[in-house]
């Protein structure tokens, strides 16, 4: 069964290849998990009816768990 963990955000950028997220062992992060990290972009509108399609999610890359602490993960 897949686990759903909400409100995961990048807490810190270590370098171009490592980040710290605000969830850890206390939040059920496991060593096998991978994350798609994206930046929230501009709102996009349908050119035919001008309705909002939502904010664009700009992919930054896939990250895998390297090190888990109680409340954060690298």
Q: What structural class is derived from the secondary structure elements? A: mainly beta
Q: Please mark out the parts with pLDDT under 50 across 5 or more consecutive residues, or reply none.
A: none
| Rg for CA atoms | 15 Å
Order of helices and strands: EEEE
Helix content: under 10%
Mean pLDDT: 93
Q: Specify the biggest β-sheet.
A: 2 strands, antiparallel
Distance between the termini: 24 Å
- Widest β-sheet, arrangement of strands: 1-2
Percent strand equals over 45%
Total number of β-strand segments? 4
Shape: elongated
Please report the number of helical segments.
0
Task: Describe this structure as you would to a colleague.
There is one protein chain. Helix content is 0%, strand content 47%. The chain has 74 residues and is mainly β. β3 and β4 form a beta hairpin. The radius of gyration is 15 Å and the shape is elongated. The relative contact order is 0.29.
């Amino acid at each position: 069964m897949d686990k759903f963990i909400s409100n995961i955000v990048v807490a810190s950028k270590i370098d171009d290849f490592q980040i710290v997220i605000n969830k850890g062992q206390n939040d059920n992060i496991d060593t096998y998990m991978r994350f798609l990290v994206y930046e929230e972009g501009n709102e996009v509108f349908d050119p035919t009816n001008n309705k909002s399609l939502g904010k664009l999610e700009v992919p930054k890359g896939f990250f895998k768990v390297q090190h888990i602490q109680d409340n954060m993960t690298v």
